[in-house]
Amino acid sequence: MMHDGTHGERGPYPERPCAAGGERNALFLERALICPGIPGMDGGERDVSARDGKIVDCAPAGELEPPPDAERIACAGKRLFPSFLDVHTHLRDPGHEYKEDIGSGLAAAARGGFGAVMAMANTVPVNDRAAVTAYMTEKAGRLHPHGPRLYPVGALTVGLAGKELARMGELADAGCVAFSNDGKGIADTEIFRRGMEYAAQWGRIVIDHCEDPAPARDALMNEGAVSGRAGIPGVPTVAEALHVARDILLSEYLDLPVHLAHISCRQSVELLRFAADRGLRVSAETCPHYLLLDDSLLEGFNTAAKVNPPLRSREDVRAVREAVRDGLIGVFATDHAPHAAHEKEQPLDQAPCGMIGLETALPLTYTLVRDGLLSEAAFTRMWHSAPAAVFGIPVNNFAPGDPADFFLFDPDEEWTVCRAAIHSKSLNTPFLGRSLRGRVTAHWLGGRRIV
Amino acid sequence: MSDIRWRHKDLLDTAELSASEITHLLDMAERFDEINARPVKKVPTLRGKGIVLFFAEPSTRTRTSFEIAGKRLSADTYALAASGSSITKGESLRDTALTLQAMAPNIIVIRHFVSGAAAFLAERLSCSVVNAGDGRHAHPTQALLDAFTLRRHWKGDMRGKRLLIVGDVAHSRVARSNVFLWRKFGVSVRVFGPRTLLPPGIRDWPVEVHDNLDEALAGVDAVMALRLQLERQQAGLLPDLSEYARCFCIGMKHLEKAASDAVVLHPGPINRGLEIASDLADSGRSRILDQVAAGVAVRMAVLFTLGMRGDSIQEEPADYKDGLERSRPADQAGYGMNHKSGQPAAGA
To answer: Cβ contacts (< 8 Å) between B133 and chain A: which residues?
Structure first.
């Protein structure tokens, strides 16, 4: 990967000089329980010293001398995580600012525990030219100078139409960290293959939205018992798995990495096992809803549960959970996809696909830790070091010089998903009104308290 | 005689009705059918009530049937067709619904091309909603009139009877509403059609799926042919229409395999020579025109029942307990977030 900058000095946008320098001078966190999963951390209580937005030191509790000028924060054994990275969000800006904009989306990210998000290209206009990329990074830097950071994902094809390759050289220079046609599968395997090759020239990886478009035509949900009974047009899991298989074969043939977005079904998982057995550089992500919800939620034509890929059968949910447990799927992502209330309050065929996720993702995925499927270390890896490694995004590992990006998480705090609790502009989530366990109680980015 | 209240605000599908509720509607339809045989076919029961017929999809027979049913009950009916309505001006279904509601009808009858559209209205409106067909999902009054027709033909003795449904089940709201009605009366349902036009998961439905027409027909007491939408061929689901007619059209010769008094039904409008042979459609085995007549009586029963809901009505007692509040199966998957009651599966 060519992207080798360190957080804070070389992001995709220049960091704004700190207006009031004294504000974020020195922090000293006492007796924080740093979760295992960070190299060198054993899960014990540690003190963290930070200055000018960077980690100075991190050592077992009591070993460090608190600097006299530091703001001291007593963590008293609370869980301290390095800020997470969400590799898959839709911030809707430019073009659909009534659903979300860069300001509200990043605010939601901060609340949810994310210090950086990768924003997909299906904006209006599509992020297939440098001007759009520059608009996004500039606005993010202006509205959230201390983070969360926005890392744009460039369009793989012009207009996401799947016909011609986008100008990836120009986009990479402007700050795009990966390329994707997310939102639409690419039917033409030749175009997709050339996209993988050309992206590699700029040190970028392609994220595929695995979906064969033909069987997905007109589909409103997963094809299966529920769609058959309710008479709702469905897309079979095969449509996803076919492109998973294609991408795995291309990855081997071209000897290039590929990242597979939002894996949702058993057949895809079985193909990932094939890829893992061959040692291929195929990484895959899944989202909280594919781990916790199934297509029976659509029985009552619930548009909040309409998402692409669609919620699958119970059997698929089980398979995806096992794939997370076994490490076949190594990355969590939110696929945060805001839509306005009036858009979701339509019959199923007109309601758009997607659900918000930035603020619910941590409590939802933490249920897997509680269920014994994941260690806390693996949980952290899937939201932090694993995606950071795939995309070359700098993150905090509590080593000296790392960005002072971290948050306190209370896994037992209960809260209800409602308008007052959500900072995203939109509320489209099937978890609306539900009580969730686990909450980010404080979040520092670049040493500054954001939440 | 006892004072009863109909527990449903709306009629969205047959699956939500208990056997006794269906029987109640069919019995009432019998009485309305007698009225329909009189010289003066009008009764004053729904005088002063308003019924809006909101048809977002073309329909002649169903809309006319509802309109006649409403008028014979002395209700005021207002027809609203998609072409003349705000749908064509880009108004959302929600806004159309709220606009209709503001006119304070007692009942809205909706036909819509999207599965779930009737439920969408019913959740948002305080008036009663009758589903006159939503997408591929349900068409409860059609299934009720089919039940009315066959119950009469079978002289009320339905248990153990065999019904064969032939054709495009995947896209058929008529088939769905029939399947989930007949199981409540112990009628066994068989299905025969092109595999490309069978819905996913049909093997878990309470039906026998057949690949051979002769076997499917053996001993059945009634055959229901479904209408084939001609666009299925363009969608790549069928080779062509003559192939369909050769393999899936029901003719007189097919009925020889069925029970001696077996009859043929069709929800209409029929494609002669495609789903049903012309001579069969016109024969004494056909109940197609009886279905149309039954449609008016059944829809009168439905409109009467919902229109009088809230008013006290004198009726025969019926067991309204079965079919109360369908309980959802307990969540056994262990991931535990799917249903309203689900909490994050702590330690599950």
So the answer is: none
Of B105-114, B155-164, B233-242, the least confident: B233-242
Active site residues of A: 335
The answer on pLDDT for A46 being more than 80 is yes
Per-residue pLDDT at A9 exceeds 60: no
Domain-located, residue A115 = yes
Length of chain A equals 451
* Together in a domain, B15 and B130: yes
The tokens describing B304, both together, are 């009467």
Per-residue pLDDT tens digits for A383-440: 999 999 999 999 999 999 999 999 999 999 999 999 999 999 999 999 999 999 999 9
Which residues of A, range 187-226, sit inside 8 Å of B by Cβ?
223-226
Residue of A nearest to B348 (CA): A371
**Average pLDDT along chain B:** 87
What is the predicted pLDDT for the residue at B89? 62
Q: Enter the pTM of the model.
A: 0.89
Are B344 and A234 a contacting pair at CB < 8 A?
A: no
Name the residue range of residue A93's domain: 83-391
Which of these, B295, B317, B302, lies nearest to B12 by C-alpha position?
Answer: B302
Question: Is B347 part of a structural domain of the chain?
Answer: no
- If asked whether residues B196 and B148 sit together in one domain, one would say yes
Check B201 against A229: CB less than 8 A apart. Answer: yes
Domain count, chain A: 2
Q: What values do phi and psi take at B239, rounded to 5?
A: -65, -60
Q: How far apart are CA A438 and CA A411, in angstroms?
A: 4
pLDDT digits (tens, 9 = 90+) for A320-338: 999 999 999 999 999 999 9
Q: Which residues in chain B are closer than 8 Å to A236, comparing Cβ atoms?
A: 200
Structural domain containing residue B170: 140-291
- Site from B10, B96, B111, B115 to mutate, A interface, most A CB atoms within 10 angstroms: B115
Among residues A281, A282, A300, A328, the alpha carbon closest in space to that of A226 is found at A300
Nearest neighbour of A231 by CB, restricted to B93, B137, B205: B137
A358, A334 Cβ separation under 8 angstroms: yes
- Whether the upstream peptide bond of residue A60 has omega within 30° of 0, thus cis, is no
A8 within domain boundaries = no
**Alpha-carbon span A154 to A180, nearest angstrom:** 6
SS3 B173: helix
Closest residue on chain A to B135 (Cα): A231
- Say which of A228, A317, A435 has its CB closest to residue B201: A228
DSSP B276: B
Element (H, E) at A197: helix A189-201
Contact A99, A338 (CB under 8 A): yes
Q: Which residue has the tokens 């995925």?
A: A365
| CATH number of the domain within which A243 lies | 3.20.20.140
- Domain identity same for A418 and A332: no
ipTM of this complex: 0.84
Q: How far is B48 from chain A (nearest CA, A)?
A: 31
More confident residue, B315 or A339: A339
| Interatomic CA distance for residues B166 and B163, integer angstroms | 10
Smallest Cβ distance to A234: which of B119, B200, B205? B200
